[in-house]
Inverse folding.
């Protein structure tokens, strides 16, 4: 499964939710499918996309939030999994695209390539629902189940170490930030 | 119970409440014990207990963009541990953060392990061009916290208040 195919498969559902992504391939590929005002791309601060998603989910329990994370980022903030699990917001789905490498900086292997199991770590941290999926069908099923479950879920999607040719897009970071803030201001209050 | 000032902690907490703060992220340290308990006991406050202080940058960013005012409680060593998040999340994306940092390791510090952080905290704040002020006496607490938050919001930048020994310690 490629990450791009996985994103395409769930794009329609993402389009109706608050989405926070990490930097690099996830951000570039989601934008290549189609940017929306409810998508925020944290283009640095590796590890903090999940913390930001937690902050939104706790602040706005009426809004469904999806975090699109990666193995390199999660490994930089494993403690954050324990914080997410501690507060376990029902409106948060945490997807980790695990390509077992730091793709955008030369493809060097991460610890998931030698057996570290992020779903296992999340489960042991106390995340109530976890899954590791390897095919597109499994991924879309796990994603749909997570959205329906109304319980904090971490889905680790094993994907190929392949990404876009470029990472810089024509969406300015601050444009994205102010647009996203405006979206959150109006969302759920109409 | 260490002699941390309950009355000063109450002043700080009430000032945060008056500023509309409804979410506090915290990692315990001795000088913060009363403040964290006050947040925990307050049904109007969401207290997020962290594993590491840098998470608080992400949580406050999410809260801010969601329209919720927040504050971060941490020791200066926690601030030092948060620097990348402050730079590459809050400063990169122009996010106001209200950081309350206990200023350990200054004159009077008895714990040898706190003594390095105290010497570099203000230099690091200046290097990061973060506006900050010292809170060292009770009468200015409410005023300075309110003004720090005002600047954070008008400038879209992090600000810091150093909770100093003369305020927080009540031997």
């Amino acid at each position: 499964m490629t990450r791009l195919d996985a994103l395409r498969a769930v794009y329609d559902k993402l389009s109706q939710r608050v989405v926070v992504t990490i930097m690099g391939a996830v951000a570039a590929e989601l934008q290549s499918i189609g940017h929306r005002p409810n998508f925020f791309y944290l283009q640095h601060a590796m590890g903090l996309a999940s913390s930001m998603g937690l902050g939104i989910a706790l602040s706005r329990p009426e809004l469904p939030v999806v975090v699109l994370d990666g193995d390199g980022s999660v490994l930089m903030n494993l403690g954050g999994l324990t914080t997410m699990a501690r507060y376990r917001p029902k409106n948060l789905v945490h997807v980790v695209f695990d390509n077992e490498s730091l793709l955008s900086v030369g493809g060097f292997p991460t610890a998931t390539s030698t057996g570290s199991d992020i779903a296992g770590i999340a489960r042991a941290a106390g995340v109530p629902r976890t899954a590791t999926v390897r095919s597109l069908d499994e991924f879309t099923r796990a994603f749909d189940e997570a959205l329906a479950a109304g319980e904090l879920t971490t889905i680790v999607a094993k994907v190929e170490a392949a990404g876009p040719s470029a990472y810089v897009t024509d969406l300015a970071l601050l444009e994205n930030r102010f647009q996203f803030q405006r979206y959150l201001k109006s969302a759920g209050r109409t | 119970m260490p002699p941390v000032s309950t009355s000063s902690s109450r002043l700080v907490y009430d000032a945060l409440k008056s500023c509309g703060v409804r979410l506090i992220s915290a990692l315990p340290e001795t000088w913060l014990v009363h403040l964290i308990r006050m947040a925990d006991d307050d049904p109007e406050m969401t207290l997020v207990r962290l594993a590491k202080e840098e998470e608080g940058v992400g949580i406050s960013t999410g809260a801010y963009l969601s329209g919720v005012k927040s504050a971060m409680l941490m020791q200066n060593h926690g601030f030092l541990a948060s620097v990348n998040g402050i730079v590459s999340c809050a400063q990169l994306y122009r996010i106001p953060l209200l950081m309350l940092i206990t200023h350990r390791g200054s004159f009077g510090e008895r714990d040898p392990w706190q003594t390095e952080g105290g010497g570099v905290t203000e230099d690091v704040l200046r290097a990061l061009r973060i506006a900050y002020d010292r809170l060292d006496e009770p009468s200015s607490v409410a005023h300075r916290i309110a003004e720090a938050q005002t600047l954070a919001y008008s400038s879209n930048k992090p600000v810091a208040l150093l909770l100093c020994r003369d305020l927080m310690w009540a031997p």
Remarks:
- Chain A touches chain B at residues 20, 40, 42-45, 47-60, 63, 77, 79-80, 82-83, 86-87, 173-174, 177, 180-181, 184-185 (CB under 8 Å).
- Strands of chain A lie at 18-21, 39-41, 65-70, 92-98, 101-102, 108-109, 129-133, 153-158.
